Amino acid sequence: MSLNVFCRYCGQQISDTDLVCGHCDSRQNFTEPSRDASRKNYEGVIAFVVCFFFGVFGIHRFIYGKIGTGILMLVTVGGFGIWWLIDLIRIAIGHFTDSRGNRLSLIHDH
Asked: Which of 4, 16, 17, 50 has the most CB atoms within 10 Å of its CB?
């Protein structure tokens, strides 16, 4: 059974099984919801702990595949502590993603 959703680019209603919008020909990037929420939550805890203790050196960014920004954090000592604090908050509330776009969070979301 397919559901109706909206195109991410033009906003027209399409089926959730359409890979390309029939109105604007834009490729849709639908992702399956994570069925392993406990694994996701575990990764968020690890990311938070690593960020808390070693975040000023960008270690959490290296671990989760964000090498370029990890180097910037290393050179600037966590953006003079500000960038480190922002990353810590983003992980805690679920707005930090790894290099593949997977959200890492302390909170358990369904």
From this structure: 50
Strand 96-97 and strand 13-15: pairing?
unpaired
Amino acid letter, 49: V
User: What is the distance between the alpha carbons of residues 107 and 92, in angstroms, rounded to a whole number?
Assistant: 7
Which stretches of the chain score pLDDT less than 50?
A: 34-35, 37-38, 110
DSSP designation for 93: H
Q: In the chain, what are the domain boundaries?
A: 1-30, 37-104
Q: What is the pTM of this model?
A: 0.62
CB atoms within 10 A of CB 8: 14
CA end-to-end span of the chain, whole Å?
21
Element (DSSP H or E) covering residue 14: strand 13-15
